[in-house]
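Supplementary Methods S3. Complex input for the S-adenosylmethionine-bound model.
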Amino acid sequence: MTTSALRPVFAILSALVEERAGLHYGPAEQDLFLERVTTRSGEAGFESLLDYYYYLRYDPAGPRELEELVAYLVVNETYFFRELEALRLIVGRFIAPAVRAGRRPRIWSAACATGEEPLTLAMLLAQDGLLEQVELLASDISLRALDAARTGSFSRRSLRGGHDPELAQRWIREEGGRLRVAPALLEAVAWRQVNLCAPEDTQTIGECDVILCRNVLIYFRDETVVQVIARLSSQLKPDGALFVGVSESLLRFGTALSCEETEQVFYYRKVS
Ligand SMILES: C[S@@+](CC[C@H](N)C(=O)[O-])C[C@H]1O[C@@H](n2cnc3c(N)ncnc32)[C@H](O)[C@@H]1O
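Predicted complex, serialized as structure tokens:
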């Protein structure tokens, strides 16, 4: 079928994906979007994209299938020690002082994909003897990604960003060509399914000292980013901080959070 003949089905499917998961696809991305949807719908046993659309929208199992589809649309690109300076700052500037003050701080890694980000945080916390004093939550919309995280088994690509030799040696070992993370780290993380575009999901998290929402906002259109940031802000404690990816700035959205910089790491603080 020609690109123009597929436009109506692209319009309804991409609108549904955006409504449910926030992911935005403009006309220029039609071919890429439909290629991925066609792959997934074929695997799920659908011959027509329109049937697949009706299933996603109206079948009771549609929401579950939509999560599967998201895994095909978004690359679960993540790796250990990614943007490590920010993670070190979180531990040193926000978590250690809270523990010293006698509190049990909470960290939420939202959109954690296959878990390398919260597991790196767990390594840093353990290195400073803080892991047991902290509540560490990690979530993603994709159950498939969370299931992969929980196995503790990763491909070598999960170290593609380079590694911190001391932490890697202590917590990651190679076994049959795979990387295996120490069970103590996996157990320290509470894994949850959360759709950042579903207020009923985000509200259940509770107040956090630090929220990480890195490398996912790029998939959302501006209005969605504003809504997601407002939701995340409402889950931050006063003086808590939100960290986004290094290539994602919130400044043009006019957020109520205050943008601050420490040791060349930018973050957004809820000023009390
Ligand atoms: C590129 S990964 C980012 C992983 C990690 N935060 C990092 O920076 O390495 C983006 C993740 O966002 C998740 N995602 C996409 N839309 C989402 C939504 N509406 N709610 C929660 N997670 C979502 C995807 O499933 C994917 O795992």
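The longest strand covers residues 236-244. The two ends are 56 Å apart (CA to CA).
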